[in-house]
Design a protein that fits this description.
The protein is of the alpha+beta class and about 240 residues long. Helix content is about 30%, strand content about 35%. It has 5 helices and 14 strands.
């Protein structure tokens, strides 16, 4: 029996080493770039391509992330509704508090806090996939112009703070109009550095903002559906659930 466990242990170790080796071989080094006016001009071009001004003036947004998390976000009041499985969180992002129900029952105390933390974590990730381009000038970011091998320009955005995983970097690959076609990621949660994911299937919101609804990689696809925007709950066709 000891020999069996010994061989199992050796086999597991070999798998770990092979996995680490594969990640190392597939990973790319974070590219070098240059901060300054050229990087800021490319940022402005990307903002124009996705109509950041229209996004900033949009009051209400709803979307479904991967058929798992359903959102209603009042950007004006920072009220947020997140629903998944049998849980629903109605919270205010500034106050970081609100109402929580799970399996139809209201939660309080530590159970409530855990669900709020979970909802906030979902929101930080899923909202970033919804419209990361407009966050290129968030507090704690740096922007660098990167020259690609084909002599085209890309925008490297690094986050030193914010969200739930500060320290990540993203290299935006843009078309001739400045609209993202994809990005490469250097993140804490991904073992492969420089992993490419597409930004495609762009949708124009009623308020004018442009959002990518599909992100594809070599082994995965993420889709964002049921996206709607409005300037009032009446226009959205629902009652205000936060009142």
């Amino acid at each position: 029996m000891k020999k069996v466990f010994k061989f199992l242990g050796i086999g597991l170790l070999v798998l770990v080493i092979l996995s680490l080796g594969a990640c190392f071989l597939l990973s790319e080094k974070l590219p070098e770039g240059t901060e300054g006016p050229a990087a800021e001009a490319l940022t402005d071009k990307m903002f124009d391509a996705v109509d950041k001004k229209a996004w900033d003036s949009t009051k209400l947004v709803t979307w479904n992330f991967m058929g798992i998390h359903q959102y209603l976000w009042d950007k004006e009041t920072t009220d947020l509704r997140v629903a998944w499985k049998d849980s629903e969180v109605l919270m205010n992002l500034d106050q970081y508090d609100g109402r929580v129900t799970k399996d139809g029952k209201a939660l309080e105390g530590e159970d409530k806090r855990k669900e709020i933390d979970k909802a906030f974590g979902f929101f930080c990730n899923d909202m970033f996939w919804l419209n990361a381009p407009v966050k290129a000038r968030d507090e704690g970011t740096t922007r660098k112009l990167v020259k690609l091998e084909n002599d085209e320009e890309a925008l490297l955005v690094s986050y030193s703070s914010g969200g739930v995983t500060p320290g990540d970097s993203f290299l935006w690959i843009l078309d001739e109009n400045g609209r993202p076609t994809g990005w490469k990621m250097w993140t804490q949660v991904l073992p492969i550095k420089g992993l490419y994911t597409s930004w495609e299937a762009w949708k124009s919101l009623d308020t004018g903002a442009e959002l990518a609804t599909k992100h594809g990689g070599s082994i995965y696809t993420m889709e964002i559906s049921e996206i709607k925007s409005a300037q009032s709950y009446e226009e959205l066709g629902i009652e205000n659930p936060f009142e």
